[in-house]
Design goal:
Strand order of the largest sheet: 2-1-3-4-5
Distance between the termini: 38 Å
Helix content: 25-40%
Radius of gyration: 21 Å
Strand content: 25-35%
Shape: elongated
Oligomer: single chain
Number of helices: 7
């Protein structure tokens, strides 16, 4: 069971997030603080596994609080919860596990909790058993409706070529970026992205179905069935087979 802290200067926001967290069986005790200074005092007495921090709090804001927590012996995993999209890059510079936009959706919160679980498991393997150093995820600047925001690369399920542009598909939306598909294929290969067609680059981590032995080979990801080209089929097959677990002889 994960113990968490919610720090927000608006009680309705605390109540809503506390309710959503309580619905997840992985969550145990939920502490509450209405300011950054109150959060510091509470964490001095009651260390927690994860902290959900609002950014815009009077006095000690969420970023200030995150920097202060870096000096704690037992440092919680950090998730920022805010209505402000502009702080994502700074949040991940502070090694945040995630960045949630208000109003928080249940399925999005569940993914954050999953990331916290992964960080905690990694921490159990460290000599001190504490939160390990978190590598900031690759961030991408995208534009939607005239607004520029930052998204994590690991949120991208697949990429679709559109001329000199590429469309990044996530669970929540799709974003057009002015980067040729060939550049993304080269730059993202080590991050688990595979070219399956001249028009598609997919994240191997999110594949849900693979059909290569048919007249129309395809892969399914994020509910979309994408074609695998005949030209790329051998390379796709080899890459997928190398990633398949096999029993030891």
């Amino acid at each position: 069971m994960i113990s968490v802290l919610i720090a927000d200067d608006e009680q309705p926001a605390i109540d809503e997030l506390a309710f959503l967290l309580s619905q997840d069986p992985r969550i145990g005790t939920v502490h509450q603080a209405s300011s950054g200074s109150e959060a510091i005092r509470l964490l001095t007495r009651e260390p927690v596994d994860a902290a959900f921090l609002d950014i815009h709090m009077p006095g000690l804001n969420g970023f200030d609080l995150a920097r202060a927590l870096q000096r704690f012996e037992h440092r919680p995993a950090l998730v920022f919860v805010t209505a402000d999209e502009e702080g994502a890059l700074e949040a991940f510079d502070l090694a945040a596990v995630d960045y949630l936009l208000k109003p928080v959706r249940t399925e999005r919160l569940q993914r954050s909790i999953g990331r916290i679980v992964e960080v905690l498991k990694a921490g159990q393997a460290t000599p001190t058993g504490g939160i390990p150093t978190v590598t900031a995820p690759e961030m991408i600047a995208v534009t939607l409706g005239g607004t520029t925001r930052m998204i994590r690369r690991d949120e991208v399920r697949y990429v679709q070529a559109q001329g000199d542009y590429a469309r990044l598909h996530t669970d929540e939306a799709s974003y057009l970026v002015r980067v040729p598909m060939a550049d993304l294929e080269r730059q993202w290969a080590d991050a688990g992205f595979l070219r399956v067609h001249r028009s598609y680059l997919v994240s191997l981590a999110h594949l849900t179905r693979i059909r290569l032995g048919t007249d129309h080979p395809s892969v399914t990801i994020a509910g979309a069935e994408l074609p695998v080209s005949r030209r790329l089929l051998p390379a796709v097959r080899e890459r997928l087979e190398s990633a398949t677990l096999r029993p030891r002889p």
